Amino acid sequence: MSKYFIDTLRPIVKDKRPTLLHKIGFEERSLVSVAGCPDFEWNQILTLASTDRSEKARLNLATLQKSLSERGVSLNLVGELNQSDPLETQTALSAALNSVVSAWSEGELWIDFTALRREELLILVRLLLDRFDRSTLDRIYGLYVSARKMGEWLSGDVVDIRSVVGFPGEISPARSTTLIALMGFEINRARAIIESYEPSNVLLGIPSLEGSINHELYSRNQEVLRKVSEDFRPLISGTFEFSANDPTKAFNDLSKVVSECLETNIILAPLHTKLSTLAVGAVGRSDPRIQICYAAVDEYNEETYSQPSGEFYLVPFSFMPSGVS
């Protein structure tokens, strides 16, 4: 995995000419890879969007369409994702991958997952690993535009807690339940998941300073960890560190924690970066015992959700376990 300044994206794209699959959302970050430069030279651009788009998301989609038009390129909307219906989302993402296969025969495929919700990203990871063999995965890269700062609040009330499609786990009422939560910045989601699953014990993951996006976000994580630990002290059986900025390291961190969970139901709750969520999907694919959960919310703080950092990560998907021989 490599981290670059945004102004290096254009020459890298010009050199490699990859095909791009991306999602337009309400964040400014969702435009960086497609409209951040007037003369990006992608081989093709395939776009995803939400079915129920907010005003900011609609404006960003219009900005993209205008930018493409000025380059003589038409918007290619290959999938619309229904955030309230995960089965519809899976169907839409599967159809989008059919479009990808038609457009991408050689070279690299880059997937900008910056604007994908964690649930959408996990469903996409499962589809990729079930569809493509090792040699194909070696040509797929994830692109993530990081945030310099996150808003004071990120999301509203939790309205549903569900297992992610493709990651049901092997759950038995005869066993105790261990909840492994990768702590982020949303105390509301962490509390709701713990209260919903009523686990026998909880393991709280927190990034190290080295494994954090920056020092400010690390400090904020520490405060969230303190509050959740105080709220659920009798259930907390331990803490562990994971990388929030390197999926390969996060995969190894999580694999070690999961390997120590014996004779118990295992629930994984990814609440931190999309980079670490990639690792959660890879771990879930490699161990069928694991159920991955998602807490849906009624709103997002679109006005001040995040500020772009001016950097992006390029992640080879080769670290993921392919399900195709």
Label this structure with key terms.
27% strand; seven-stranded mixed sheet; 2 domains; Rossmann fold; alpha/beta; globular; 325 residues; six-stranded mixed sheet
What is the topology?
Blueprint lengths: L1 E4 L3 H8 L2 E5 L8 H4 L8 E7 L4 H16 L6 E5 L4 H18 L5 E4 L5 H14 L2 H4 L2 E11 L7 E6 L12 E7 L4 H11 L3 E7 L7 H17 L4 E7 L4 H13 L4 E7 L3 H13 L3 E8 L8 E11 L9
Parallel strand pairs: 2-3, 2-5, 3-4, 5-6, 8-9, 8-11, 9-10, 11-12
Antiparallel strand pairs: 1-13, 6-13, 7-12
Helix pairs in contact: 4-5, 5-10, 9-10
What's the CATH class of the largest domain, please?
A: Alpha Beta
CATH topology of the largest domain: Rossmann fold
Contiguous low-pLDDT stretches (5 residues minimum) are none
The computed structural class is alpha/beta
Rg over C-alpha atoms, rounded to the nearest angstrom: 19 Å
- Mean pLDDT comes to 91
Question: Tell me, what's the shape?
Answer: globular
Superfamily at the CATH H level of the largest domain? Hypothetical protein VC1899 like domain (Restriction endonuclease-like)
Strand order of the largest sheet: 1-13-6-5-2-3-4
End-to-end CA span: 24 Å
Largest sheet: 7 strands, mixed
User: Proportion of β residues?
Assistant: 25-35%
